[in-house]
Each structure stands twice: as structure tokens, then as C-alpha cells.
Automatic annotation (TrEMBL):
This is Carboxylic ester hydrolase. Keywords: Hydrolase. InterPro entries: AB_hydrolase_fold, CarbesteraseB, Carboxylesterase_B_AS, Type-B_Carboxylest/Lipase. Residues 4-482 form the Carboxylesterase type B domain. Belongs to the type-B carboxylesterase/lipase family. Its EC number is 3.1.1.-. The keyword Metal-binding does not apply. It holds the Pfam family COesterase. It comes from Kitasatospora putterlickiae. It is an enzyme of class 3 (hydrolase). The keyword Hydrolase applies. Gene3D superfamilies: alpha/beta hydrolase (3.40.50.1820).
Length: 500
């Protein structure tokens, strides 16, 4: 018999699979169409019984599968756009015997540079979480132009507002699925992690109890000047004024095409002396709008935003190798390395020498990878941990060090590599370029242990290693071996301390 869950006067019908009940594509907000694509999210307006047996549509985005010369990144970016109006939807995996309630709840926010991805990706299948006593939720939110482009007359950060609306829906209804709304952990990777970092500052107090930030931080919001520059360039590509009325007339297909062109357009987002916080990996993202975000989220965290939230934050050792090794990019020459360092740091010569002395790379590509990993991921993670560590909520930090065999080991512990282990989906999903294999016994054991740590954190607020404190800044190194250190950040990372 198919499972049915009643949520007030409405109900949802799902499926059973592997001892788990699954409910797919449930609208948590009304479909954003027409001018409403650029409005704040509105309540979902469906009634009666909703058929949640199949995944719903996804946010408009570029279909990247099958591009010549580009490896399979579907495990990270998804397979592309599944059209449909009601794409503000979520998916729930819950144990078969969850009717007693009180289970920990985890809500995952997907990555994809704020322009791609979805909560229906196979790599985010929540079966293993549900089998381990967690109610797991994945969320779709507005991406690209509808989600994050700054437009006069439209609320900023619409994608973040969608995420808040989804979390509020979960708080209101998750008890019917067996979850405890007061024990909710929000977690995300990449753009999803940046979203979680922003939510620590922007979400209403008490919306979630715990947060996990995987390869992100809370230092990546664009200034309004930077966001306005992006809007002007995109409007120029479309040949329209940078107004709400003009953009409301443009169909989603044209907007996604314009985003693809924007990605291919050289664009310096150093505006008014402020460097690009997204390092060119995306042109769209959260904006310091004076409403949800009054500054960089990490500054709000330092002042006590999310003071009672438990925070687990980490990065992978070789994040940038996904981009520099797996993707078709120009050869990293000495001149390119120096230009990149100069774009990120006011003293590039001192920076490069410090990374060489620290043994962070012997070739220009290796040095660029180390610098980019630190600027975009490791240093913002450290800043977030330091900002939160003096507040009542616990703080934990990790570094994922397991090395993929891909590209003869050159991928290292690249961006996104922890995802198969967090979701414990080895053998269930083809991870493509990440080259994580079910028949690797070391990987199998690591997946079981890392997944169990995330479950324990959501359940009890303790991932299994000491807290990160100002007096003892413990970082758990997670790989073939698990070790702890209080000296994870070498002198080369100290050079970023005052760089914004």
C-alpha cells in the first residue's frame, strides 16, 4: 500500500522503497511564473491529495550534459532543467516506522554555483539517512536570474527567501512525516554551503537548530555595486533595460541562455576596491541588500547571529582541482598564476613566496589550486569557525583529505568529493568524474563513518570529535585515517586575514 501523509486539510501520497517512505516534488511555495518570478515566494496553493510519487520540475537552468570536452559533472551539477511551473518543491525521505515522531530532521540545500543543480539529483538520494533514523529533505529554489539577479523594484536574494520559505514549511509540517521540528539541521555544499552561511545571518531566529557548511563559508556576498554591475552586463547581453518590467517579459529559456553567455564573458567584479568574493566561479549569488544581509554573513555571526546554533564547517584539501584538473581550462603559466594572485591579494609576490615555502605546490597549477582553495573555501571556513566559536552554540571544523584516484590521483580531495561519503551512496550512484568506487574498501569504510558522523551531529549535536574553540582550534582531518590538529592553518593562510 502506498503511504499517505496528512498535513492539515491536505495530504501527500508517496512510495515505499528499501524500508523508507519517499515523497517527491511537494510544492512548498507557489510556482514562480510571469512577474512572480521576481517576487518574494508565495504560499503553495494546491489542495486535496498531492501525488508525490515522482520527482517534480526543477528551476530553469542550462543543460550541461553532453557538452563536448566537458567531463560528467552530473553528480555535482545535476542533469539539467526539468521544466514545469511548480519547481519550488521539496523531497522527503523518512523511515517506514517514523509514525511515532521525534526524529532528527536534515534539510539539504544543493550546490551548483547558484545557477544549476536540484534537490532531485541521484547523488542526494536520502535513503541511507532515512534508514539511519533521520527525516531527510532536499529542496529546489530559484536559480540564476530569477533567484539572484539584482533588479530595481524586486526583492533581492529571492533564492535565499525560497530557502527560508522551504525551512518554514518543514518546521510546520515535518512532524507529520515523523520529524522533530525543533531538531532541524540545515546543510549544504558549495553554493548550498554559501547559502547556509548566509542563512546563519538572514534566517529568523529559531528556524533551525544546527547547520553544516560543506565547502563554503559566510564571506561571499556581493556588494550592491558588484551585483548592479552584473545586472548591467547581463541586460546588455539581452539588449534590454535593467528593469523589472523588461526582464519580466523575457522567457526562462532566454534567461538561462543569457546566463551561459554571462559565464563566458570576461568580467572583473572588483568594484570600489572590493574584490570578487566568488572568485569568478559564479557571477550570481547572495547580495548585501540591507534587508536579509546587512553585511557579510560572517560579520553578523561574529556579532551573535545564530549564537545558539550548532555549526559544523569544513572544506576539502584540494577544492580547486575539480576546476583546474578535470575541466578544460588554459594551461596555468607563471604569468597567469601571478595575474590570479594579484586579483586576489594586495601583495601577490609575498603571497606566492609564502605558498612555495609552505610546500603548497611545485608547479604554477598546484600553487594556483592551493591559493584558490584557501581564498574561496578554507580561509572562509576558518573565519566562520572563529566568528562562531565564542558563542553558546557549539562549533566544529573539519578538513576532508581523502584522495580520489581520478586523473591518476591529480584530483586530490577536490570540490564535491565528500558528497558520496556524506550521503553514503557508494554503489547507488555513478559519480562520474569524482571516480569514487564501490569496490574500494577504504572508500566504503569512510562513507559509513563520515555518514554516521553527520547523522550523530543532527541527532545529538556531536559529530564525534572535540569542539573548535578559541583556545583549542581543533580541526578534524577526515580521510583514510582520521586525525586532529590545532595547527591546520599555516603562515601562508595568515596572509589572508585582513584581505576582503
Amino acid at each position: 500500500m502506498e503511504p499517505v501523509v496528512h498535513i492539515g486539510p491536505r495530504s501527500v501520497r508517496g512510495v515505499r522503497s528499501e524500508g523508507v517512505r519517499v515523497f517527491r516534488g511537494i510544492p512548498y511555495a507557489a510556482g514562480p511564473t510571469g512577474t512572480d518570478r521576481f517576487a518574494a515566494p508565495r504560499p503553495a496553493d494546491w489542495t486535496g491529495e498531492f501525488d508525490a510519487r515522482a520527482f517534480g520540475p526543477t528551476a530553469p537552468q542550462v543543460n550541461r550534459a553532453g557538452i563536448p570536452g566537458v567531463p560528467d559533472l552530473s553528480a555535482i551539477l545535476g542533469t539539467g532543467w526539468t521544466p514545469g511551473e511548480d519547481y519550488l518543491n521539496l523531497n522527503v525521505w523518512t523511515p517506514e516506522d517514523a509514525t511515532g515522531g521525534g526524529l532528527p530532521v536534515m534539510v539539504f540545500i544543493h550546490g551548483g554555483a547558484f545557477v544549476g543543480g536540484s534537490g532531485r539529483q541521484a547523488s542526494y538520494d536520502g535513503t541511507r539517512f532515512a534508514q539511519d533514523g533521520v527525516v531527510l529533505v532536499t529542496v529546489n529554489y530559484r536559480l540564476g536570474v530569477p533567484g539572484f539577479l539584482r533588479l530595481p523594484g524586486a526583492p533581492d536574494n529571492r533564492g535565499l527567501r525560497d530557502q527560508i520559505a522551504a525551512l518554514q514549511w518543514v518546521r510546520e509540517h515535518i512532524a507529520a512525516f515523523g520529524g522533530d521540528p525543533d531538531n532541524l539541521t540545515v546543510f549544504g555544499e558549495s553554493a548550498g554551503a554559501l547559502s547556509v552561511g548566509a542563512l546563519l545571518a538572514a534566517a529568523p531566529a529559531g528556524l533551525f537548530r544546527r547547520a553544516i557548511v560543506q565547502s563554503g563559508g559566510a564571506s561571499h556576498a556581493l556588494t550592491t555595486a558588484q551585483a548592479d554591475h552584473v545586472t548591467a552586463v547581463l541586460a546588455g547581453l539581452l539588449g534590454v533595460p535593467a528593469t523589472l518590467a523588461a526582464f519580466a517579459e523575457i522567457p526562462d529559456e532566454a534567461l538561462t541562455g543569457a546566463v551561459a553567455r554571462l559565464e563566458a564573458t570576461p568580467l572583473d567584479l572588483t568594484v570600489d576596491g572590493v574584490r570578487d568574493p566568488l572568485m569568478g566561479l559564479s557571477r550570481l549569488g547572495p547580495v548585501i541588500d540591507g534587508d536579509l544581509l546587512t553585511g557579510q554573513p560572517v560579520d553578523a555571526v561574529r556579532l551573535g547571529a545564530a549564537a545558539d546554533v550548532d555549526v559544523l564547517a569544513g572544506a576539502n584539501s584540494d577544492e580547486m582541482n575539480l576546476y583546474l584538473v578535470a575541466l578544460p581550462v588554459p594551461e596555468t603559466t607563471e604569468s597567469l598564476l601571478h595575474a590570479a594572485a594579484a586579483a586576489l591579494h594586495p601583495d601577490p609576490a609575498t603571497l606566492l613566496e609564502a605558498y612555495r615555502v609552505a610546500g603548497r605546490g611545485g608547479t604554477p597549477r598546484e600553487l594556483l589550486g592551493a591559493i584558490g582553495t584557501d581564498y574561496m573555501f578554507a580561509v572562509p571556513t576558518a573565519r566562520l569557525a572563529e566568528a562562531h566559536a565564542r558563542h553558546p552554540g557549539g562549533t566544529w571544523r573539519y578538513e576532508f583529505t581523502w584522495t580520489s584516484p581520478g586523473y591518476d590521483g591529480a584530483l586530490g580531495a577536490c570540490h564535491g568529493l565528500e558528497l558520496p561519503f556524506v550521503f553514503d551512496n557508494l554503489g547507488r550512484v555513478d559519480y562520474g568524474v569524482l571516480d569514487v568506487r564501490q569496490d574500494d574498501g577504504t572508500a566504503r569504510g569512510l562513507a559509513e563513518r563520515l555518514h554516521a558522523s553527520w547523522v550523530a551531529f543532527a541527532r545529538d549535536g556531536d559529530p564525534g570529535w572535540p569542539r573548535f574553540t578559541p583556545e583549542a582550534p581543533v580541526v578534524r582531518r577526515i580521510g583514510t585515517e582520521w586525525t586532529s590538529t590545532t595547527t591546520a592553518d599555516g603562515p601562508e593562510r595568515a596572509l589572508w586575514r585582513d584581505v576582503r
